[in-house]
Amino acid sequence: MAIGLLGGSFDPVHIGHLELARDALDQLGLTEVRFVPAGQPWQKGEMTDAAHRAQMVLAAIRGEARFSLDMREIERAGPTYTIDTLRELRAALGEDVPLALIMGSDQFERLDTWRDWTRLLDLAHLAVARRADAVLTPGYALQEYYNAHWARRSAVRDAAHGHIVEIEMTPVDASATEVRALLSQPPSPARDARLAEIVPAAVLDYIRAHHLYR
Q: Any bridge partners for residue 103, and if so which?
């Protein structure tokens, strides 16, 4: 068993998140990917209520047998720190289950701003997703960390934690920022067509039913 963890604000969840999870499943041979919506991310400002964000994730992953929702960050009081989430999961799952924390290259390049970032690999692998033509440009300390811990993708299943691997991300032109901007605009054929391209239909239905992002 090898478990992938995909965290984020998911405000709202969109097809880019789903495609990243599928890429990780396929390329790393994971058993499942757990979506972990952030409760109060310490590096972000005001967000949509956590209960709505969780329900949108549920709507997006319905029918995906190997995707699940993990509520631990929403249920934990105070600011959200990934290191705390990994410690909780490791305590619950034991020492032998491989965990892979999935992140985009932009997140990885800011990893050295995270709390206890050098301890993340004590608890999980890091699976860094990048487009085929993208080049990682981390700072010096983070580059040294990457060089010391880089491994082939198969390492995710051979050990419970400790490696940095790369996965190739399917190009998807979508962002939560664009989704929110579109939803704040008056309806139009062009706007609605674009939303249908980048947001799962069930998520759009939920957003409209609850009058979000107006």
A: 128
Structure tokens at 34: 């757990």
* Ordered DSSP codes for 164-199: EEEEEPPP----HHHHHHHHTSPP-HHHHHHHHHHS
Q: What is the pLDDT of residues 29-88, one digit of tens each?
A: 999 999 999 987 655 668 899 999 999 999 999 999 999 999 999 998 888 899 999 999
* pLDDT given for residue 44 in this prediction: 61
Using CB atoms within 10 Å of the CB of residue 78, give its burial: 0 to 12 exposed, 13 to 18 middle, 19+ buried. Answer: exposed
Would you say how long the chain is, in residues?
214
What value does the mean pLDDT take over residues 93-101? 97
pLDDT at 45: 62
Contact 165, 151 (CB under 8 A): yes
What are 124's strand-pairing partners? none
